[in-house]
């Protein structure tokens, strides 16, 4: 499918979410942002074909209202095979995320280059359209 790769960032800390969104947009990705797990679930349910529209989810595990594990469970229950990269400062939460289907983990604080490498590995290289 032509067009930018869509990345869903689920992060309750605005500065972190905004930084990730800025960097990914600068790399030519289409970015959708969610402030918590409940908003992420609404966004995923609203897409006509979530796996085709979202190539990757960057998911903070410690979220208000609906946590990261609940988002992972929803994806599994719906049969949505969207790769999830779990983010957390807690090793225990990252291990739980992996056990519940996260493809990879990013410990916080994270290295932006490492995050970009993970996105490119999962979404493929993208040249920014002018």
Can you walk me through this structure?
With 130 residues, the protein is α/β, with parallel strands linked by helices. The chain has one domain: Response regulator (Rossmann fold, 3-Layer(aba) Sandwich). It is 45% helix and 18% strand. Strands 2-1-3-4-5 form a five-stranded parallel beta sheet, with helices on both faces. Helix 2 packs parallel to helix 4. The two termini are 18 Å apart. The C terminus is likely disordered.
What is the topological layout?
Blueprint: E1 6-10, H1 14-26, E2 30-34, H2 37-46, H3 50-53, E3 56-60, H4 68-78, E4 84-88, H5 91-99, E5 104-107, H6 112-123
Parallel strand pairs: 1-2, 1-3, 3-4, 4-5
Helix pairs in contact: 2-4
Beta-strand percentage?
15-25%
Structural class: alpha/beta
Rounded to the nearest angstrom, the distance between the terminal CA atoms is 18 Å
Judging from the principal axes of the Cα atoms, what is the shape? globular
Task: Identify the CATH architecture.
Answer: 3-Layer(aba) Sandwich
Instruction: Give unreliable regions as ranges.
Output: 125-130
> Strand tally, please?
5
Mean pLDDT level: 87
Could you state the CATH homologous superfamily? Response regulator
| Tally of alpha and pi helices | 6
Radius of gyration: 13 Å
**How many discrete domains?**
1
Using brief descriptors, characterize the structure shown.
single chain, alpha/beta, five-stranded parallel beta sheet, 6 helices
Compact description:
By secondary structure, the protein is of the alpha/beta class. It has helices at 14-26, 37-46, 50-53, 68-78, 91-99, 112-123; strands at 6-10, 30-34, 56-60, 84-88, 104-107.
